[in-house]
TrEMBL record:
Keywords: Signal. Residues 1-22 form the signal peptide. InterPro entries: GLPGLI. The lineage of its organism: Bacteria, Pseudomonadati, Bacteroidota, Flavobacteriia, Flavobacteriales. Pfam families: Porph_ging (PF09697). This is GLPGLI family protein.
């Protein structure tokens, strides 16, 4: 009986120590995000932009879509946020051309919770929802990113019938319209490819990515690539994971509706988004 008690006490101590070590494990990863705009057709008062105008516009957009992000993480939590910079310039129409809104994304694996702090057109929102399910397909391919051996994983999100129907309707309106607007791209299956390393045993990654047996160091989807340039494990200055708190609390679905309603303010009678382009 005495031996059994000693074994139970020993096992309990080892469990507590192991748990404390897991909680103390923390780090910070730095990511560079780049979105490349290619071949987006545009019209100005019914006339397509020249190749030179198109190239100049794409260069400006691509430069604006180069960003640096930080991921602070421990064993079960992470917060992803953008490097602080001056406000992005706006067009004469007042619209901000950017690949994403200013945001801070918090992920908690134990409770399967996501919290995102977003600033959209000067209004702050706190989005609280479940973590997305990526349904990763693990593949055997490996490569080195810095000093870490990484493994490939792929997620495929099928284009929905609603997206295809919206595209066909928008295409008809765009062909008839004489206003200035972006040409909507045909919806396709969205393939996301990531590279993760089990050498950093946290199920975290940039943005909303998570759910793999190791930190995600690279992600590519659509025309965007996110690449980790630096990882610091257990830095001298303790990493603190602070949950987002600012903004009106809503769900992801409610936020999407707010964005849709706001963009509708920029649509003309044909239902397409009007823009003004400064050629200088």
């Amino acid at each position: 009986m005495k031996k059994l008690l000693i074994m139970i006490i020993t096992a309990t101590i080892l469990f507590v120590v192991s748990s404390l070590k897991a909680q103390e494990f923390s780090g910070q990863a730095v990511y560079f995000s780049k979105t490349v705009m290619k071949g987006m057709k545009m019209k100005i008062n019914g006339v397509e932009m020249s190749e030179a105008e198109q190239e100049k516009f794409e260069q400006r957009m691509n430069k604006m879509n180069e960003k640096t992000f930080f991921l602070d993480f421990n064993k079960y939590e992470s917060v992803y946020y953008e490097e602080q910079k001056l406000d992005a310039p706006t067009s004469k129409s007042g619209m901000v051309f950017s690949s994403s809104d200013t945001e801070k994304i918090y992920k908690e694996i134990k409770t399967n919770q996501k919290m995102a702090e977003k600033d959209f057109f000067g209004k702050e929102f706190l989005i609280v929802d479940s973590l997305p399910n990526w349904n990763w397909q693990l593949e055997g391919e490996t490569k080195k990113i810095g000093d870490y051996t990484c493994y490939k994983a792929v997620s495929i999100k099928k284009a929905t019938s609603e997206e295809l129907a919206d595209y066909e309707e928008s295409k008809k309106k765009q062909e008839q319209s004489k206003t200035s607007f972006f040409m909507m791209s045909e919806p396709k299956d969205r393939v996301t490819t990531v590279w993760y390393t089990p050498e950093i045993p946290v199920s975290q990654g940039p943005g909303e990515f998570w759910g793999l047996p190791g930190l995600i160091l690279e992600a590519s989807f659509d025309d965007t690539t996110i690449l980790c340039s630096k990882v610091v494990i257990n830095p001298k200055e303790k990493i603190r994971i602070n949950k987002p708190k600012k903004g009106k609390k809503i769900t992801e679905k409610e936020y999407d509706k707010i964005v849709e309603d706001k963009l509708s303010e920029y649509k003309d009678g044909d239902g397409v988004i009007q823009i003004k382009i400064d050629k200088n």
